[in-house]
């Protein structure tokens, strides 16, 4: 039916062959006519024929006219397939376009006129002046025959003109009905011919994506949705939401629930999530959904409507509540054989620095012990065992107690809390270990134990709410370190939960005139985390009042930055919803006003890739300010937050930051390494690594510190040997500078985080979804790093534990229908972008075959290497339930 | 009556009955029986908080069949250690300095790097330090002139300052006295003090110290400096023409490593330096004749100093030119074959002992220990055998030779401890730097006021052959073996 390219071109070739065999010598003709020197015999023939047709079309005899038009159509159709050059018939008809047009105008209404209009419409493809849309015009007056019969190029051109015409008519507010008929035809044509992308483009242009639903079928819906979701990243709001809505509906239509759920989560539309559950009847698949929701880190309650059976619902809720995360993680660890606890010395590898700093100083350095505490916590995170904190304390040496007391004052807080990190996600064991610290009368230790309880419960929900029950008691204690421990613990344990009870106990602190600044700052931050991305008015009000109540001096304090940040977190990724609050923030004291403005803007547009906001923020970074203005730091971080969502924007941001680094002021330069760290978190790109390595030797020690921490962030959980080497060399380079050495140690701990099984990347599900709590954790740390000296190197080093919110195993663990781990072969390789590619392109390249559980590095994708099982989710990350393939036959 | 299940650690206790008429304390007592956790340490989570001992069950709203969670252990409560831990950050500044494991640098007072590096090298000799500390301010013997005395005192003060300070020390006093004693160091060029030859400074300073540290008894033996650095040479002077032969002994503070085009290694240079030709009147021939002088070491010093003769006077340019030739030197030097027959005999037994000990450390039987392995492994053993030597250094003022009755013996094997390097093309220009091995085994580069840690393999790379720092004066420390 459609002029497939092949038959035609073959026909063409055959004809040409005939022609050349008939007349081997063309020379005489060429000499005759210089103008047509290049034409072959056959072409000349064609040309003469066409000229004849044109003449005959103008003949008064309708019979002759018709015959001529038919022949002309025949010639054109036979050749429209070629895309590389203008088809010959069209070329030869070019000079006659005007004549034919003129003739058409004067023709009486008839079938013949329509026929001529058809031909003119095709001719207009090459002849029509830009913007005239003659092709479309003639098409509309033409015979409305099968649109595809004129070839692909014609359809494509028509689509373009329709889009233009549509915009014009929108302006004039005239009817578009005739256009939509054509659109219907074109979309149908495209969808049938593997050109889903063009169909989608056209529909987006005419703003009628709903049409798509009628035309997708089993064969093309995947490609269509794939294109829709990828295109959404580059569309301005609210079009992007619309596009995703359509994609969601298509997925639901074809019962591709995991993808539908993915989009529902992306849209943060709980109604859709619910719909996925109610539409699906298969319990096993619902389990898979629960795993996906748990990875996203949101609080989600299943109700009887979604799962009828109580027992089933409880089991599913357990999955959503992440109660099995620890088990799965330990399965992975055992499989990879990394259960053996590591000491900080195993990480420092000082013996590789022969001679240098190998024999440490004789006395314990509190700073270095604190660093070791963090390294120990990060490296052994979630493994439930280590060599400093969990060693059984015997009465003689009492090593567990001993290490705790090798930390000084506030250092003990971090040391006690590190136990929470080591027993991460294992609530029962964690609480058991932490219990003994509740009974001392040493406030920093109690604070650490409270924080530890929060860390253990990070991302885990439990019916008994142990974190709330325990920490709630301490919120209003006398000692501010204990209060901070409890408040921060609650923030970590209940991030994203929007728990009213906590709100009602934390909000009063914000407006308590007697509360010290640090308690207020952490309360604001915790509320921001608990209500992350919720746009909760009440919380926003409380924080705004708290900000307004601060005195001039307090606004200059380093910790004050957590108030605007807490406010910003409420609007994380919520775009325009922030505007009302942003207006209010303009009334703040000028010391904090711009800082607040930048923080709100960057949080609200975090992960959206909004180019306009990136430009706004870049403009802020470019300014050269008077002393004392500190809002450029958050602006630089904001740049990274907004741009981090998709690859292109990310690369552009990295390049822009390179410029900022060269021309920016010192306070901008200090934030640049942190922004780079955020952009490539747990994704050590070599170019960024080199930039950071260079900056880590910067003469400005704060730039160097940020760069070192960022080296840790980009390598977090990767065990990257190159970064590890760089940091080792830095440790000997900075062996005399305690502060820098502390940063190097922290970075070393981060690189070997979870012995290489963890990631900090807030993105998951093939980089589509952004976990809001994870981003909140990272952003908080980065904001704290903007004033390294007073926060992380001061006595609030435990803010480093906010990273726990972003820590997730970078694994793919396959489980059978009873959720028991099973090992199957999988191919793991570099993910390939297959958007808009026809056919079934390979989705990974350079793969290796492993058996599950496997680790997935940044930019890697897995696929099953066996047909024996069918995965219940197409996105092979985290927990994947496998179903036996009924059609599988042993070979 | 309610029935609940209680989760504690990983265990779940099913079917525990609660009598709602009794206070929760009773319930806790029930749990105490099951878990062994005393009631006061039990934390039971109920909706909205912890279960209080005197709470009202009806107000809490526990339902039948509900799962409760209990936290608590019977573990010992963490106690602070009785002895508070002392942190480096809390220590006074001086103690922090010792914590670093090396002492401070010296401020460059304007082309004084030759002096700074010399001082740093000599300071690394603990025996010299202790000898200086015994030197009394008043106890100036008559045969020491005032300037020498002042220089000695200044040296002592400077060494003390260096040990105490964290930050770089300014050696102003020392420099003044040095210039007073040796006016040649006060040369000016363009209004600046000129760069000087470190070797000259080294030799002069040592000479001064050896004069002033001589015990009042002024006997040869009590010369502390000589005991530490002095090398006795026995030379055979031989005239080929006449066949005359005589022998003479002399004492020097350093061996010279002559650098000619066939010298690639320190050992060759030393051998070269111990052989010489001299012209003197031969009584037998009645005219001046060429005598061959061959020296051998007769007694070994505790610290063997080797000077690379890198500078020679170039007449055409009128300055001391430098030989850039690469001359390798080992971290461990064996000078057995430069020793005289007598000394060799004395050394044999201790050397055998040393070999055996090292063999044992390698897990070999004493007999099967071959020398090959020893040489290979001594690198790693060096610090440990050093310690053995140091433990016996206290009070070893006397007896340069190993024949002391203390029970420790020289072995003829030396370990590299300091390297004084020069960078640049002539002795009076360029830059001098000291590289000193610490007791901890670490190498520290003292580049004026900046001490920095170096790797051992980089130390042997200072052997010349380019424009990098190259060794000019190096000092070895004797390795002892106790018998």
TrEMBL record, chain A:
Residues 1-45 are annotated as: Disordered. GO terms for molecular function: enzyme regulator activity. It holds the Pfam family RPN1_RPN2_N. SUPFAM superfamilies: ARM repeat. Gene3D superfamilies: Leucine-rich Repeat Variant. Residues 835-888 form the 26S proteasome non-ATPase regulatory subunit RPN1 C-terminal domain. Coiled coil: none annotated. Residues 50-352 form the RPN1 N-terminal domain. InterPro entries: 26S_Psome_Rpn1, ARM-like, ARM-type_fold, Proteasome/cyclosome_rpt, RPN1_C, RPN1_N. Residues 13-37 have a biased composition (Basic and acidic residues). One of its GO terms (biological process) is proteasome-mediated ubiquitin-dependent protein catabolic process. Keywords: Proteasome, Repeat, Ubl conjugation. Belongs to the proteasome subunit S2 family. Acts as a regulatory subunit of the 26 proteasome which is involved in the ATP-dependent degradation of ubiquitinated proteins. Component of the 19S regulatory particle (RP/PA700) base subcomplex of the 26S proteasome. The 26S proteasome is composed of a core protease (CP), known as the 20S proteasome, capped at one or both ends by the 19S regulatory particle (RP/PA700). The RP/PA700 complex is composed of at least 17 different subunits in two subcomplexes, the base and the lid, which form the portions proximal and distal to the 20S proteolytic core, respectively. This is 26S proteasome non-ATPase regulatory subunit 2 homolog. The gene is LOC130500692.
TrEMBL record, chain B:
This is ubiquitinyl hydrolase 1. It comes from Raphanus sativus. SUPFAM superfamilies: Cysteine proteinases, Ubiquitin-like. Interacts with calmodulin (CaM). The keyword Iron-sulfur does not apply. The keyword Hydrolase applies. It holds the Pfam family UCH. Residues 383-405 have a biased composition (Polar residues). InterPro entries: Papain-like_cys_pep_sf, Peptidase_C19_UCH, Ubiquitin-like_dom, Ubiquitin-like_domsf, Ubiquitin_CS, UBP14-like, USP, USP_CS. Recognizes and hydrolyzes the peptide bond at the C-terminal Gly of ubiquitin. Involved in the processing of poly-ubiquitin precursors as well as that of ubiquitinated proteins. Keywords: Hydrolase, Protease, Thiol protease, Ubl conjugation pathway. SMART domains: UBQ. It catalyses: Thiol-dependent hydrolysis of ester, thioester, amide, peptide and isopeptide bonds formed by the C-terminal Gly of ubiquitin (a 76-residue protein attached to proteins as an intracellular targeting signal). One of its GO terms (molecular function) is cysteine-type deubiquitinase activity. Residues 350-408 are annotated as: Disordered. Its EC number is 3.4.19.12. One of its GO terms (biological process) is proteasome-mediated ubiquitin-dependent protein catabolic process. Residues 2-71 form the Ubiquitin-like domain. Residues 104-479 form the USP domain. Residues 350-361, 369-379 have a biased composition (Basic and acidic residues). Belongs to the peptidase C19 family. It is an enzyme of class 3 (hydrolase).
